[in-house]
Known about the structure:
3-stranded antiparallel beta sheet; 46% helix; alpha+beta; 11 helices; Putative choline kinase involved in LPS biosynthesis; Aminoglycoside 3'-phosphotransferase, Chain: A, domain 2; 5-stranded antiparallel beta sheet
Amino acid sequence: MSLACSPDHDASARYHSMNTDRIHTQRIQTLSYWTRPVTIEPLPGGITNHNYLVSDAGHLYVARLCVDKTLLGIDRRNEVVCHRAAHACGIAPELVHQEDGVLVTQHVSGRTLASEDVRDLAFIPRLVAVLQTLHESWDALTGEILYFSPFQTARTYAKTAAALNARLPGDIDRLLEDAGRLSRQLGLYVPVLCHNDLLAGNIIVEDNGDRVWLVDWEYAGIGHPLFDLAGVCANNAFSESQELALLGAYRGSVNECDLRDLRILKTMSSLREALWAVIQTVASDIDFDYVRYANENFEAYREARRQLRVPVTAP
Length: 315
């Protein structure tokens, strides 16, 4: 079953987006961090927040308008703690200022990746090195942070979407019941700090090619290390051989238990992303086709679930 797009909602979104940049620019200009009047340009690509490139006295920054996103489970205090830990480890740009719902980070002069870049077998070891650094970053944490479970997030998103009268698949209850059974098939693991949103657009390679950066830490938290790998696979359409290369580079070798867990979490990554998009169909003012995105991720979930070689039995 595919979700249908509401023409009325599309018209409303276009209407509300007309003045968005002007309003946000005025808000950014008033921040106390700037040393002089700044120049501001919209940055394309964000599907959760509005992002802007800011020039202040020759220095470049990215300002992100962080409107209330509690519907998506975002906690800005948690995000700040996770972002600062990642920066301390050298894998995230510095967060230099936060004020009135705006986060300001240093601008990275580099290239935002596309999915085909992430799938490149030559790039996988570089990404793995960044993830290993992140997953070993306990000492960099300086505050309490949230625990992230894609299974719980999927259940919460489905309830939120229903409360908003967003259109859910007719078999959503069965999907969530199956997800619950899958959660009980996972092996034991050591919780680590995870990014939990590894879309290609959240990975940047510096112009000189020396460093790989991760951005947008709003879904970060303590969780399963293989969920970050699963998100890479699901969000970037990895083939089976690319999955094996990623897992092998991360673990040093591939064993059956890790591969099973990776594929369970890959399935959940697509379901979580689909339900996230369902909420956004009624909650976001960003000009993006969330209906199409939801349908693509529901289909990715169903395909991953069909291919999952894990017998799932009722508890």
